[in-house]
Amino acid sequence: MSQSFRQSQATLHTWSGLLLGWVLFLVFVTGTIAFWRDGMNRWMRPELARVEQPMRVLAGTQRFLERHAGDAKTWYITMPSAQTPGAQLFWIPQPAEGAAPRRGRRDNQALIDADGDPVVARETRGGEFFYRFHFDLHYVPVIWARWLVGVASIMMLVAILTGIVTHKKIFRDFFTLRRQKGQRSWLDGHNATAVLALPFHLMITYTGLVTLMALLMPWATVANYTNEAKLFETLFPFVETAERSGRPAPLTDLTRIVADAERRLGGPAGFITVSDPGDAVARVSVTRAPTSMLNTRTPGLAYDGVTGALVWQSPPPGGAAATAGVMIGLHAGRFADTVTRWIYFLCGVAGTLMVASGLVMWTVKRREKLPDPERPYFGFRLVEKLNVAVVGGFPLGIACMLWANRLLPVEMASRAEWEIHVLFLGWLAALVLTLVRRAQIAWTILLGSTGALLALLPFYNLLWTDRGIINSILTGDYLPAGVDMTLLVFGAAFVAIARRVATYQPKARRARRSRPAPEAAIGGWEPAE
Amino acid sequence: MTLLTLILCIIAFALFGLSTHAHHRRWFGGTITSAGKGVLRGPAWLALALGFVCAVAASGWVFGPILWMGMVMLGAGCVFLFLNLAPGRFERSK
Protein backbone atom coordinates (compact mmCIF):
# COMPACT_ATOMS: atom_id res chain seq x y z
CA MET A 1 0.00 0.00 0.00
CA SER A 2 1.49 3.29 -0.98
CA GLN A 3 2.34 5.82 1.64
CA SER A 4 0.23 8.51 0.03
CA PHE A 5 -2.84 6.31 0.12
CA ARG A 6 -2.32 5.65 3.81
CA GLN A 7 -1.80 9.36 4.30
CA SER A 8 -5.05 10.27 2.60
CA GLN A 9 -6.87 7.71 4.72
CA ALA A 10 -5.32 9.19 7.83
CA THR A 11 -6.57 12.63 6.88
CA LEU A 12 -10.02 11.25 6.21
CA HIS A 13 -9.94 9.46 9.57
CA THR A 14 -9.05 12.64 11.40
CA TRP A 15 -11.68 14.84 9.84
CA SER A 16 -14.58 12.42 9.57
CA GLY A 17 -14.01 11.66 13.23
CA LEU A 18 -13.73 15.26 14.31
CA LEU A 19 -16.38 17.18 12.42
CA LEU A 20 -19.43 15.53 13.94
CA GLY A 21 -17.49 13.89 16.75
CA TRP A 22 -19.39 15.80 19.41
CA VAL A 23 -22.72 14.59 18.04
CA LEU A 24 -21.29 11.08 18.03
CA PHE A 25 -20.27 11.51 21.64
CA LEU A 26 -23.82 12.44 22.63
CA VAL A 27 -25.22 9.56 20.60
CA PHE A 28 -22.78 7.10 22.15
CA VAL A 29 -23.41 8.27 25.72
CA THR A 30 -27.19 8.16 25.47
CA GLY A 31 -27.19 4.96 23.43
CA THR A 32 -24.99 3.27 25.99
CA ILE A 33 -27.30 4.30 28.82
CA ALA A 34 -30.28 3.23 26.71
CA PHE A 35 -29.06 -0.38 26.85
CA TRP A 36 -30.43 -0.08 30.39
CA ARG A 37 -33.58 1.68 29.22
CA ASP A 38 -35.88 -0.56 31.24
CA GLY A 39 -33.49 -0.46 34.16
CA MET A 40 -33.55 3.34 34.13
CA ASN A 41 -37.33 3.28 33.69
CA ARG A 42 -37.46 1.47 36.99
CA TRP A 43 -34.62 3.34 38.69
CA MET A 44 -36.23 6.70 37.96
CA ARG A 45 -39.48 5.56 39.59
CA PRO A 46 -38.24 4.28 42.95
CA GLU A 47 -41.77 4.23 44.37
CA LEU A 48 -42.74 1.23 42.31
CA ALA A 49 -42.33 -2.35 43.39
CA ARG A 50 -40.99 -4.94 40.99
CA VAL A 51 -43.56 -6.72 38.85
CA GLU A 52 -43.77 -10.28 40.16
CA GLN A 53 -46.84 -11.52 38.31
CA PRO A 54 -47.28 -10.01 34.84
CA MET A 55 -50.70 -11.59 34.39
CA ARG A 56 -51.96 -9.93 37.55
CA VAL A 57 -50.85 -6.58 36.14
CA LEU A 58 -52.56 -7.39 32.86
CA ALA A 59 -55.83 -8.18 34.63
CA GLY A 60 -55.56 -4.84 36.43
CA THR A 61 -54.87 -3.17 33.10
CA GLN A 62 -58.04 -4.59 31.60
CA ARG A 63 -60.06 -3.47 34.65
CA PHE A 64 -58.59 0.02 34.39
CA LEU A 65 -59.20 0.35 30.66
CA GLU A 66 -62.76 -0.96 30.84
CA ARG A 67 -63.53 1.60 33.51
CA HIS A 68 -61.76 4.59 31.93
CA ALA A 69 -61.72 3.90 28.21
CA GLY A 70 -64.43 1.33 27.68
CA ASP A 71 -65.57 2.96 24.44
CA ALA A 72 -62.11 3.70 23.01
CA LYS A 73 -61.20 2.94 19.42
CA THR A 74 -58.02 1.07 20.32
CA TRP A 75 -56.06 0.12 23.42
CA TYR A 76 -52.33 -0.40 23.30
CA ILE A 77 -50.78 -2.33 26.18
CA THR A 78 -47.09 -3.04 26.71
CA MET A 79 -46.87 -6.33 28.52
CA PRO A 80 -45.13 -5.89 31.89
CA SER A 81 -42.19 -7.95 33.11
CA ALA A 82 -39.81 -7.95 36.05
CA GLN A 83 -37.62 -5.49 34.14
CA THR A 84 -40.32 -2.91 33.46
CA PRO A 85 -41.88 -0.55 35.99
CA GLY A 86 -45.34 -1.86 35.06
CA ALA A 87 -47.71 -2.08 32.11
CA GLN A 88 -47.47 1.05 30.01
CA LEU A 89 -50.71 1.65 28.14
CA PHE A 90 -52.40 4.23 26.02
CA TRP A 91 -55.62 4.39 24.13
CA ILE A 92 -57.11 6.18 21.17
CA PRO A 93 -60.63 7.49 21.78
CA GLN A 94 -63.38 7.02 19.20
CA PRO A 95 -62.87 9.64 16.50
CA ALA A 96 -65.49 12.37 16.92
CA GLU A 97 -67.59 13.15 13.86
CA GLY A 98 -65.80 15.70 11.70
CA ALA A 99 -63.03 16.34 14.21
CA ALA A 100 -59.42 15.85 13.23
CA PRO A 101 -57.74 12.95 15.01
CA ARG A 102 -56.10 14.24 18.13
CA ARG A 103 -52.56 13.42 19.04
CA GLY A 104 -52.69 14.06 22.76
CA ARG A 105 -50.36 12.34 25.16
CA ARG A 106 -51.42 13.36 28.61
CA ASP A 107 -54.94 12.17 29.28
CA ASN A 108 -54.99 8.91 27.35
CA GLN A 109 -52.12 7.01 28.86
CA ALA A 110 -51.39 5.31 32.12
CA LEU A 111 -48.97 3.02 33.87
CA ILE A 112 -50.30 0.03 35.83
CA ASP A 113 -48.20 -1.13 38.75
CA ALA A 114 -47.31 -4.55 40.13
CA ASP A 115 -50.60 -4.75 42.06
CA GLY A 116 -52.66 -3.98 38.98
CA ASP A 117 -53.55 -0.46 40.06
CA PRO A 118 -52.85 2.73 38.16
CA VAL A 119 -49.54 4.12 39.26
CA VAL A 120 -49.07 7.09 41.48
CA ALA A 121 -45.40 7.85 40.85
CA ARG A 122 -43.28 10.84 40.04
CA GLU A 123 -43.72 12.03 36.50
CA THR A 124 -40.62 11.16 34.50
CA ARG A 125 -39.55 10.14 31.05
CA GLY A 126 -37.27 7.61 32.68
CA GLY A 127 -34.98 5.61 30.42
CA GLU A 128 -37.14 6.53 27.45
CA PHE A 129 -35.42 9.91 27.39
CA PHE A 130 -32.01 8.38 26.68
CA TYR A 131 -33.49 6.04 24.12
CA ARG A 132 -35.19 8.85 22.20
CA PHE A 133 -32.27 11.25 22.55
CA HIS A 134 -30.02 8.62 20.99
CA PHE A 135 -31.61 9.27 17.59
CA ASP A 136 -34.06 12.16 18.07
CA LEU A 137 -31.88 14.47 20.18
CA HIS A 138 -33.97 17.10 21.97
CA TYR A 139 -35.46 20.54 21.32
CA VAL A 140 -34.95 20.04 17.56
CA PRO A 141 -37.42 18.70 15.01
CA VAL A 142 -37.13 14.94 14.90
CA ILE A 143 -36.46 14.81 11.19
CA TRP A 144 -33.46 17.16 11.42
CA ALA A 145 -32.12 15.23 14.36
CA ARG A 146 -32.33 11.93 12.52
CA TRP A 147 -30.58 13.38 9.48
CA LEU A 148 -27.85 14.78 11.69
CA VAL A 149 -27.43 11.52 13.59
CA GLY A 150 -27.57 9.60 10.31
CA VAL A 151 -24.84 11.71 8.72
CA ALA A 152 -22.78 11.46 11.89
CA SER A 153 -23.12 7.66 11.76
CA ILE A 154 -21.95 7.57 8.16
CA MET A 155 -18.91 9.60 9.16
CA MET A 156 -18.40 7.24 12.05
CA LEU A 157 -18.39 4.28 9.69
CA VAL A 158 -15.89 6.12 7.49
CA ALA A 159 -13.76 6.88 10.53
CA ILE A 160 -13.76 3.25 11.65
CA LEU A 161 -12.88 1.88 8.24
CA THR A 162 -10.19 4.46 7.53
CA GLY A 163 -8.90 3.92 11.04
CA ILE A 164 -8.41 0.24 10.30
CA VAL A 165 -6.71 1.00 6.97
CA THR A 166 -4.48 3.76 8.30
CA HIS A 167 -3.35 2.11 11.42
CA LYS A 168 -3.05 -1.50 10.42
CA LYS A 169 -0.42 -1.67 13.11
CA ILE A 170 -3.21 -1.50 15.67
CA PHE A 171 -3.65 -5.24 15.32
CA ARG A 172 0.02 -5.96 15.79
CA ASP A 173 0.13 -3.56 18.72
CA PHE A 174 -3.05 -5.06 20.07
CA PHE A 175 -1.77 -5.50 23.59
CA THR A 176 0.39 -2.43 23.72
CA LEU A 177 -0.23 0.35 26.12
CA ARG A 178 2.61 2.74 26.71
CA ARG A 179 1.93 4.61 29.90
CA GLN A 180 3.02 8.09 30.89
CA LYS A 181 4.14 8.80 27.35
CA GLY A 182 1.95 11.76 26.43
CA GLN A 183 0.68 11.61 22.91
CA ARG A 184 1.64 7.95 22.51
CA SER A 185 -0.43 7.01 25.53
CA TRP A 186 -3.42 8.83 24.11
CA LEU A 187 -2.97 6.97 20.85
CA ASP A 188 -2.67 3.61 22.61
CA GLY A 189 -5.76 4.32 24.68
CA HIS A 190 -7.71 5.36 21.60
CA ASN A 191 -6.55 2.22 19.79
CA ALA A 192 -7.35 -0.04 22.69
CA THR A 193 -10.93 1.15 23.06
CA ALA A 194 -11.34 0.97 19.29
CA VAL A 195 -9.76 -2.42 18.61
CA LEU A 196 -10.92 -4.30 21.70
CA ALA A 197 -14.54 -3.57 20.84
CA LEU A 198 -14.06 -3.33 17.08
CA PRO A 199 -16.68 -5.98 16.22
CA PHE A 200 -19.14 -4.02 18.33
CA HIS A 201 -18.22 -0.67 16.77
CA LEU A 202 -18.62 -1.99 13.24
CA MET A 203 -21.85 -3.76 14.10
CA ILE A 204 -23.40 -0.89 16.01
CA THR A 205 -22.55 1.74 13.40
CA TYR A 206 -23.67 -0.33 10.45
CA THR A 207 -26.88 -1.56 12.05
CA GLY A 208 -27.50 1.95 13.35
CA LEU A 209 -27.51 3.10 9.76
CA VAL A 210 -29.90 0.25 8.95
CA THR A 211 -32.37 1.60 11.50
CA LEU A 212 -32.33 4.89 9.61
CA MET A 213 -32.06 3.43 6.12
CA ALA A 214 -35.58 4.33 4.99
CA LEU A 215 -34.74 7.95 5.78
CA LEU A 216 -31.17 8.05 4.46
CA MET A 217 -31.68 5.94 1.35
CA PRO A 218 -35.34 5.89 0.41
CA TRP A 219 -34.76 4.98 -3.21
CA ALA A 220 -35.10 1.22 -2.82
CA THR A 221 -38.52 1.57 -1.29
CA VAL A 222 -39.55 4.28 -3.73
CA ALA A 223 -38.56 2.06 -6.63
CA ASN A 224 -40.33 -1.04 -5.34
CA TYR A 225 -43.40 0.30 -3.62
CA THR A 226 -45.68 2.92 -5.11
CA ASN A 227 -48.00 2.65 -2.18
CA GLU A 228 -46.70 3.39 1.29
CA ALA A 229 -49.48 1.36 2.91
CA LYS A 230 -48.41 -1.69 0.96
CA LEU A 231 -44.84 -1.28 2.19
CA PHE A 232 -46.03 -0.91 5.73
CA GLU A 233 -48.13 -4.04 5.42
CA THR A 234 -45.18 -6.01 4.09
CA LEU A 235 -42.94 -4.93 6.92
CA PHE A 236 -45.49 -4.97 9.71
CA PRO A 237 -48.26 -7.41 8.83
CA PHE A 238 -51.45 -6.72 10.76
CA VAL A 239 -54.96 -8.08 10.87
CA GLU A 240 -57.74 -6.17 9.13
CA THR A 241 -60.28 -4.84 11.57
CA ALA A 242 -63.96 -4.81 10.81
CA GLU A 243 -66.19 -1.75 10.92
CA ARG A 244 -67.52 -1.14 14.43
CA SER A 245 -70.87 -2.90 14.67
CA GLY A 246 -72.42 -0.92 17.49
CA ARG A 247 -73.59 -4.12 19.17
CA PRO A 248 -72.05 -4.20 22.62
CA ALA A 249 -70.42 -7.42 23.72
CA PRO A 250 -68.16 -7.94 26.71
CA LEU A 251 -64.48 -8.32 26.02
CA THR A 252 -63.10 -11.71 26.91
CA ASP A 253 -60.43 -12.11 29.58
CA LEU A 254 -57.16 -10.77 28.15
CA THR A 255 -55.01 -12.92 30.42
CA ARG A 256 -56.53 -16.05 28.88
CA ILE A 257 -55.78 -14.83 25.36
CA VAL A 258 -52.24 -13.80 26.28
CA ALA A 259 -51.54 -17.13 27.95
CA ASP A 260 -52.69 -18.92 24.81
CA ALA A 261 -50.65 -16.60 22.57
CA GLU A 262 -47.51 -17.11 24.63
CA ARG A 263 -47.90 -20.85 24.22
CA ARG A 264 -48.41 -20.60 20.46
CA LEU A 265 -45.68 -18.01 19.90
CA GLY A 266 -43.22 -19.93 22.01
CA GLY A 267 -42.15 -16.91 24.03
CA PRO A 268 -43.42 -14.11 26.24
CA ALA A 269 -45.94 -11.63 24.87
CA GLY A 270 -44.65 -8.11 24.30
CA PHE A 271 -47.37 -5.93 22.96
CA ILE A 272 -51.15 -6.19 23.00
CA THR A 273 -53.52 -4.23 20.79
CA VAL A 274 -57.26 -4.30 21.40
CA SER A 275 -59.43 -2.71 18.73
CA ASP A 276 -63.05 -1.81 19.39
CA PRO A 277 -63.15 -3.18 22.94
CA GLY A 278 -66.69 -3.81 24.16
CA ASP A 279 -68.04 -4.18 20.63
CA ALA A 280 -69.06 -7.38 18.86
CA VAL A 281 -66.18 -7.02 16.36
CA ALA A 282 -63.47 -6.54 18.97
CA ARG A 283 -60.05 -7.90 18.00
CA VAL A 284 -57.08 -8.63 20.23
CA SER A 285 -53.64 -8.91 18.66
CA VAL A 286 -50.63 -10.12 20.60
CA THR A 287 -47.03 -9.93 19.39
CA ARG A 288 -44.11 -11.76 20.87
CA ALA A 289 -41.78 -9.72 23.08
CA PRO A 290 -38.65 -8.48 21.23
CA THR A 291 -36.76 -9.35 24.42
CA SER A 292 -37.10 -13.00 23.45
CA MET A 293 -35.98 -12.89 19.81
CA LEU A 294 -33.12 -11.56 17.75
CA ASN A 295 -35.45 -10.28 15.04
CA THR A 296 -37.00 -7.14 16.44
CA ARG A 297 -40.05 -7.50 14.21
CA THR A 298 -41.74 -10.28 16.08
CA PRO A 299 -44.56 -12.55 14.94
CA GLY A 300 -48.09 -11.89 16.10
CA LEU A 301 -51.49 -13.48 16.49
CA ALA A 302 -54.99 -12.04 16.40
CA TYR A 303 -57.98 -13.25 18.40
CA ASP A 304 -61.67 -12.58 18.34
CA GLY A 305 -62.14 -10.25 21.29
CA VAL A 306 -65.49 -11.71 22.32
CA THR A 307 -65.05 -15.45 21.90
CA GLY A 308 -61.28 -15.51 22.36
CA ALA A 309 -60.85 -17.69 19.26
CA LEU A 310 -57.66 -17.43 17.19
CA VAL A 311 -58.51 -15.73 13.88
CA TRP A 312 -55.18 -14.74 12.31
CA GLN A 313 -51.47 -15.48 12.34
CA SER A 314 -48.81 -13.19 10.94
CA PRO A 315 -47.20 -14.62 7.80
CA PRO A 316 -43.51 -15.60 8.10
CA PRO A 317 -41.38 -12.54 7.33
CA GLY A 318 -39.64 -12.20 3.96
CA GLY A 319 -35.85 -12.47 3.72
CA ALA A 320 -35.19 -8.73 3.47
CA ALA A 321 -37.59 -7.84 6.27
CA ALA A 322 -36.07 -10.53 8.49
CA THR A 323 -32.54 -9.30 7.72
CA ALA A 324 -33.45 -5.74 8.62
CA GLY A 325 -35.28 -6.94 11.71
CA VAL A 326 -32.30 -8.96 12.87
CA MET A 327 -29.92 -6.04 12.28
CA ILE A 328 -32.12 -3.70 14.25
CA GLY A 329 -32.41 -6.39 16.91
CA LEU A 330 -28.62 -6.60 17.09
CA HIS A 331 -28.38 -2.83 17.36
CA ALA A 332 -30.94 -2.40 20.11
CA GLY A 333 -29.90 -5.53 22.03
CA ARG A 334 -33.42 -6.01 23.34
CA PHE A 335 -32.84 -9.76 23.33
CA ALA A 336 -29.87 -9.47 25.65
CA ASP A 337 -29.87 -11.29 28.97
CA THR A 338 -27.97 -9.80 31.88
CA VAL A 339 -24.53 -11.03 30.76
CA THR A 340 -24.94 -9.97 27.13
CA ARG A 341 -26.44 -6.66 28.22
CA TRP A 342 -23.40 -5.92 30.35
CA ILE A 343 -21.16 -6.68 27.37
CA TYR A 344 -23.25 -4.34 25.23
CA PHE A 345 -22.97 -1.68 27.91
CA LEU A 346 -19.21 -2.08 28.33
CA CYS A 347 -18.74 -1.96 24.56
CA GLY A 348 -20.81 1.21 24.52
CA VAL A 349 -18.54 2.65 27.21
CA ALA A 350 -15.52 1.67 25.10
CA GLY A 351 -17.10 3.40 22.09
CA THR A 352 -17.73 6.53 24.12
CA LEU A 353 -14.12 6.51 25.29
CA MET A 354 -12.94 5.99 21.73
CA VAL A 355 -14.87 9.03 20.51
CA ALA A 356 -13.83 11.14 23.50
CA SER A 357 -10.16 10.19 23.31
CA GLY A 358 -10.18 10.77 19.55
CA LEU A 359 -11.56 14.26 20.05
CA VAL A 360 -9.07 15.12 22.76
CA MET A 361 -6.21 13.64 20.72
CA TRP A 362 -6.86 16.13 17.94
CA THR A 363 -5.70 18.87 20.31
CA VAL A 364 -2.99 16.77 21.97
CA LYS A 365 -1.34 16.20 18.62
CA ARG A 366 -1.55 19.81 17.55
CA ARG A 367 -0.54 21.38 20.83
CA GLU A 368 3.08 20.35 20.33
CA LYS A 369 3.22 22.20 17.05
CA LEU A 370 1.53 25.41 18.09
CA PRO A 371 3.66 28.38 17.07
CA ASP A 372 2.59 30.28 20.17
CA PRO A 373 1.07 28.03 22.84
CA GLU A 374 -0.24 31.06 24.71
CA ARG A 375 -2.37 32.13 21.78
CA PRO A 376 -3.51 29.12 19.76
CA TYR A 377 -5.30 29.72 16.51
CA PHE A 378 -9.09 29.90 16.39
CA GLY A 379 -9.74 26.34 15.21
CA PHE A 380 -7.63 24.92 18.00
CA ARG A 381 -9.39 26.95 20.63
CA LEU A 382 -12.79 25.99 19.18
CA VAL A 383 -12.06 22.27 19.31
CA GLU A 384 -10.56 22.58 22.75
CA LYS A 385 -13.55 24.45 24.15
CA LEU A 386 -16.04 22.15 22.44
CA ASN A 387 -14.27 19.15 23.90
CA VAL A 388 -14.53 20.49 27.41
CA ALA A 389 -18.10 21.67 26.94
CA VAL A 390 -19.37 18.44 25.37
CA VAL A 391 -17.17 15.67 26.71
CA GLY A 392 -17.00 17.25 30.16
CA GLY A 393 -20.35 19.03 30.13
CA PHE A 394 -22.84 16.49 28.88
CA PRO A 395 -22.15 13.89 31.60
CA LEU A 396 -22.56 16.70 34.13
CA GLY A 397 -25.94 17.47 32.57
CA ILE A 398 -26.97 13.85 32.94
CA ALA A 399 -25.86 13.80 36.57
CA CYS A 400 -27.95 16.95 37.17
CA MET A 401 -30.90 15.31 35.48
CA LEU A 402 -30.71 12.24 37.69
CA TRP A 403 -30.67 14.49 40.74
CA ALA A 404 -33.63 16.44 39.35
CA ASN A 405 -35.42 13.11 39.05
CA ARG A 406 -34.93 12.64 42.78
CA LEU A 407 -35.40 16.18 44.02
CA LEU A 408 -37.99 18.00 41.91
CA PRO A 409 -41.30 18.21 43.80
CA VAL A 410 -43.65 15.41 42.80
CA GLU A 411 -46.60 17.74 42.30
CA MET A 412 -44.67 20.09 40.02
CA ALA A 413 -46.36 20.90 36.71
CA SER A 414 -44.69 19.30 33.65
CA ARG A 415 -42.22 17.68 35.96
CA ALA A 416 -40.99 15.19 33.36
CA GLU A 417 -40.05 18.04 31.01
CA TRP A 418 -38.28 19.89 33.80
CA GLU A 419 -36.05 16.94 34.51
CA ILE A 420 -34.82 17.29 30.96
CA HIS A 421 -34.60 21.07 31.17
CA VAL A 422 -32.33 20.59 34.20
CA LEU A 423 -30.03 18.43 32.08
CA PHE A 424 -29.65 21.21 29.57
CA LEU A 425 -29.31 23.87 32.28
CA GLY A 426 -26.48 21.88 33.81
CA TRP A 427 -24.90 21.52 30.40
CA LEU A 428 -25.32 25.25 29.75
CA ALA A 429 -23.57 26.00 33.02
CA ALA A 430 -20.72 23.75 31.87
CA LEU A 431 -20.52 25.71 28.63
CA VAL A 432 -20.34 29.02 30.47
CA LEU A 433 -17.61 27.65 32.71
CA THR A 434 -15.70 26.49 29.66
CA LEU A 435 -15.82 29.96 28.19
CA VAL A 436 -14.60 31.79 31.29
CA ARG A 437 -12.00 29.35 32.62
CA ARG A 438 -8.97 27.76 31.01
CA ALA A 439 -9.22 24.17 29.93
CA GLN A 440 -7.44 22.45 32.80
CA ILE A 441 -9.55 24.16 35.44
CA ALA A 442 -12.77 23.61 33.51
CA TRP A 443 -12.01 19.90 33.01
CA THR A 444 -11.24 19.49 36.69
CA ILE A 445 -14.39 21.22 37.89
CA LEU A 446 -16.67 19.46 35.40
CA LEU A 447 -15.28 15.96 35.88
CA GLY A 448 -15.04 16.37 39.64
CA SER A 449 -18.57 17.68 40.11
CA THR A 450 -19.99 15.04 37.78
CA GLY A 451 -18.23 12.35 39.78
CA ALA A 452 -19.43 13.73 43.10
CA LEU A 453 -23.02 14.06 41.87
CA LEU A 454 -23.09 10.53 40.47
CA ALA A 455 -21.44 8.93 43.48
CA LEU A 456 -23.79 10.62 45.95
CA LEU A 457 -26.97 9.40 44.23
CA PRO A 458 -26.83 5.86 45.67
CA PHE A 459 -26.52 7.33 49.16
CA TYR A 460 -29.60 9.46 48.60
CA ASN A 461 -31.43 6.33 47.44
CA LEU A 462 -30.27 4.45 50.48
CA LEU A 463 -31.63 7.07 52.86
CA TRP A 464 -34.70 8.46 51.18
CA THR A 465 -36.17 5.82 48.89
CA ASP A 466 -37.39 2.26 49.34
CA ARG A 467 -34.99 1.01 46.75
CA GLY A 468 -31.58 1.67 48.22
CA ILE A 469 -28.77 -0.75 47.47
CA ILE A 470 -29.14 -2.78 50.66
CA ASN A 471 -32.91 -3.10 50.45
CA SER A 472 -32.75 -4.08 46.78
CA ILE A 473 -30.13 -6.74 47.31
CA LEU A 474 -31.96 -8.19 50.30
CA THR A 475 -35.12 -8.55 48.21
CA GLY A 476 -33.19 -10.03 45.29
CA ASP A 477 -34.07 -7.06 43.08
CA TYR A 478 -30.72 -6.53 41.38
CA LEU A 479 -31.73 -4.06 38.70
CA PRO A 480 -31.94 -0.89 40.83
CA ALA A 481 -29.01 -2.11 42.93
CA GLY A 482 -26.99 -2.58 39.72
CA VAL A 483 -27.77 0.96 38.58
CA ASP A 484 -26.72 2.31 41.96
CA MET A 485 -23.44 0.41 41.97
CA THR A 486 -22.68 1.45 38.42
CA LEU A 487 -23.25 5.07 39.44
CA LEU A 488 -20.82 4.61 42.32
CA VAL A 489 -18.15 3.18 40.03
CA PHE A 490 -18.60 5.92 37.44
CA GLY A 491 -18.67 8.58 40.13
CA ALA A 492 -15.39 7.30 41.56
CA ALA A 493 -13.85 7.11 38.08
CA PHE A 494 -14.84 10.69 37.26
CA VAL A 495 -13.37 11.94 40.53
CA ALA A 496 -10.17 9.98 39.93
CA ILE A 497 -9.75 11.47 36.46
CA ALA A 498 -10.52 14.94 37.78
CA ARG A 499 -7.71 14.51 40.32
CA ARG A 500 -5.25 13.48 37.66
CA VAL A 501 -6.22 16.41 35.49
CA ALA A 502 -5.88 18.79 38.40
CA THR A 503 -2.39 17.59 39.32
CA TYR A 504 -1.14 17.27 35.75
CA GLN A 505 1.99 19.25 35.00
CA PRO A 506 2.92 19.55 31.39
CA LYS A 507 6.56 18.51 31.06
CA ALA A 508 7.66 20.79 28.30
CA ARG A 509 7.42 24.53 28.14
CA ARG A 510 6.45 25.91 31.47
CA ALA A 511 3.61 28.37 30.97
CA ARG A 512 1.70 26.16 28.64
CA ARG A 513 -1.97 25.53 28.94
CA SER A 514 -2.61 21.98 29.70
CA ARG A 515 -4.88 19.12 28.95
CA PRO A 516 -6.01 16.31 31.15
CA ALA A 517 -3.17 13.99 31.93
CA PRO A 518 -2.59 11.62 29.08
CA GLU A 519 -2.57 8.74 31.47
CA ALA A 520 -6.17 9.49 32.29
CA ALA A 521 -7.28 7.37 29.36
CA ILE A 522 -5.17 4.45 30.30
CA GLY A 523 -7.30 2.85 32.94
CA GLY A 524 -10.11 2.98 30.44
CA TRP A 525 -11.85 5.59 32.51
CA GLU A 526 -12.47 8.71 30.59
CA PRO A 527 -15.29 11.19 30.62
CA ALA A 528 -18.07 8.89 29.70
CA GLU A 529 -21.27 7.59 31.03
CA MET B 1 -21.15 -22.90 29.70
CA THR B 2 -21.30 -19.11 29.48
CA LEU B 3 -18.59 -18.82 32.11
CA LEU B 4 -16.54 -21.49 30.36
CA THR B 5 -16.74 -19.46 27.15
CA LEU B 6 -15.34 -16.45 28.96
CA ILE B 7 -12.57 -18.47 30.61
CA LEU B 8 -11.53 -19.93 27.25
CA CYS B 9 -11.48 -16.47 25.67
CA ILE B 10 -9.37 -15.12 28.52
CA ILE B 11 -6.93 -18.02 28.15
CA ALA B 12 -6.77 -17.42 24.40
CA PHE B 13 -5.96 -13.74 24.71
CA ALA B 14 -3.56 -14.30 27.58
CA LEU B 15 -1.60 -16.60 25.25
CA PHE B 16 -1.83 -14.11 22.39
CA GLY B 17 -0.69 -11.32 24.67
CA LEU B 18 2.22 -13.28 26.07
CA SER B 19 3.38 -14.09 22.56
CA THR B 20 4.16 -10.41 21.96
CA HIS B 21 7.70 -9.24 22.62
CA ALA B 22 6.91 -6.58 25.16
CA HIS B 23 4.67 -8.65 27.38
CA HIS B 24 6.82 -11.74 27.05
CA ARG B 25 9.71 -9.77 28.40
CA ARG B 26 7.64 -8.35 31.24
CA TRP B 27 6.33 -11.71 32.38
CA PHE B 28 8.99 -14.26 31.51
CA GLY B 29 12.06 -12.14 30.93
CA GLY B 30 14.08 -12.66 27.78
CA THR B 31 12.88 -12.51 24.20
CA ILE B 32 10.54 -14.88 22.50
CA THR B 33 11.55 -16.95 19.49
CA SER B 34 9.25 -17.42 16.55
CA ALA B 35 8.91 -21.08 17.47
CA GLY B 36 7.90 -19.99 20.95
CA LYS B 37 5.30 -17.72 19.44
CA GLY B 38 3.79 -20.65 17.57
CA VAL B 39 3.66 -22.71 20.74
CA LEU B 40 1.60 -19.97 22.39
CA ARG B 41 -0.56 -19.00 19.46
CA GLY B 42 -1.69 -22.45 18.35
CA PRO B 43 -3.43 -23.24 21.63
CA ALA B 44 -4.78 -19.69 21.68
CA TRP B 45 -6.65 -20.23 18.42
CA LEU B 46 -7.81 -23.60 19.70
CA ALA B 47 -9.19 -21.99 22.87
CA LEU B 48 -11.08 -19.42 20.78
CA ALA B 49 -12.60 -22.19 18.66
CA LEU B 50 -13.56 -24.19 21.76
CA GLY B 51 -15.08 -21.04 23.17
CA PHE B 52 -17.30 -20.80 20.11
CA VAL B 53 -18.50 -24.36 20.64
CA CYS B 54 -19.27 -23.61 24.29
CA ALA B 55 -21.12 -20.41 23.41
CA VAL B 56 -23.32 -22.22 20.90
CA ALA B 57 -23.91 -24.99 23.42
CA ALA B 58 -24.88 -22.35 25.99
CA SER B 59 -27.19 -20.19 23.89
CA GLY B 60 -27.98 -21.99 20.65
CA TRP B 61 -27.22 -21.07 17.07
CA VAL B 62 -28.95 -17.69 17.10
CA PHE B 63 -27.60 -16.16 20.29
CA GLY B 64 -24.52 -18.34 20.71
CA PRO B 65 -22.36 -16.59 18.10
CA ILE B 66 -23.35 -13.21 19.55
CA LEU B 67 -22.44 -14.42 23.02
CA TRP B 68 -19.12 -15.71 21.70
CA MET B 69 -18.30 -12.40 19.99
CA GLY B 70 -19.16 -10.58 23.20
CA MET B 71 -17.01 -12.93 25.26
CA VAL B 72 -14.12 -12.55 22.83
CA MET B 73 -14.25 -8.78 23.37
CA LEU B 74 -14.71 -9.11 27.11
CA GLY B 75 -11.88 -11.65 27.38
CA ALA B 76 -9.58 -9.47 25.31
CA GLY B 77 -10.46 -6.47 27.45
CA CYS B 78 -9.75 -8.30 30.71
CA VAL B 79 -6.41 -9.57 29.43
CA PHE B 80 -5.50 -6.16 28.02
CA LEU B 81 -6.12 -4.44 31.33
CA PHE B 82 -4.35 -7.13 33.33
CA LEU B 83 -1.26 -7.36 31.14
CA ASN B 84 -0.81 -3.61 31.09
CA LEU B 85 -1.84 -2.59 34.58
CA ALA B 86 -0.58 -5.46 36.71
CA PRO B 87 3.12 -5.18 37.48
CA GLY B 88 4.99 -7.79 35.45
CA ARG B 89 7.37 -10.17 37.17
CA PHE B 90 10.38 -8.93 35.23
CA GLU B 91 9.39 -5.32 34.97
CA ARG B 92 12.07 -2.75 35.35
CA SER B 93 11.09 -0.36 38.10
CA LYS B 94 10.11 2.97 36.71
Automatic annotation (TrEMBL), chain A:
State what protein this is by name. Answer: PepSY-associated TM helix
> From what organism does this protein derive?
Sphingomonas jeddahensis
Instruction: Write down the superkingdom of origin.
Output: Bacteria
Could you tell me the keywords of this UniProt record? Answer: Membrane, Transmembrane, Transmembrane helix
Note the InterPro entries from the entry.
PepSY-ass_TM
Report whether Membrane shows up as a keyword of the record. yes
Q: Name one Pfam family in it.
A: PepSY_TM
- Report the transmembrane regions from the record: 12-36, 147-171, 192-217, 342-364, 385-404, 416-436, 443-463, 483-502
Entry keyword Transmembrane: yes
UniProtKB/TrEMBL annotation, chain B:
Organism taxonomic ancestry? Bacteria, Pseudomonadati, Pseudomonadota, Alphaproteobacteria, Sphingomonadales
**What name is this protein filed under?**
DUF3325 domain-containing protein
Keywords in alphabetical order, please.
Answer: Membrane, Transmembrane, Transmembrane helix
A Pfam family that the UniProt record links to this protein:
DUF3325
- According to the lineage, what is the superkingdom? Bacteria
Q: Which residues cross the membrane?
A: 38-59, 66-86
Q: Which InterPro entries does the UniProt entry name for this protein?
A: DUF3325
